[in-house]
Amino acid sequence: MKIYLLLSLLVLETFLFKIFGQEVLEHYPPDHIKTIQFYGKETLRNFPVVSVGEIMTLEFDDLLGDESDYYYRIKHFNWDWTPSSLFQNEFLDGFDNLRIDNYRTSFNTLQSYTHFTLAIPNENVQFKISGNYMLEIYTADDTLAFSRRFCIYEPSATVQVAVYRPQNLDRFYTHQSIHFKITPQMETFRNPDKNIFVTLLQNDQWDSKITGLTPQYYQGASLEYRYEYPAQFEGGNEYFFFDSKDLRVTSSNITFTQKKDLYETYLKVDIPRSMSEYSFAPDINGAFEIRNIMRPGDSDIEADYSLVYFSLASNFNLENDQIYVYGGFNNYQLSEYNAMYFNPALGLYESVILLKQGFYNYKYVVKKEGGLYKNEISGSFALTENNYLVLVYYRAIGTQFDALVGVGVANSFELKN
Question: How many CB atoms lie within 10 A of CB 230?
Answer without folding.
Answer: 14
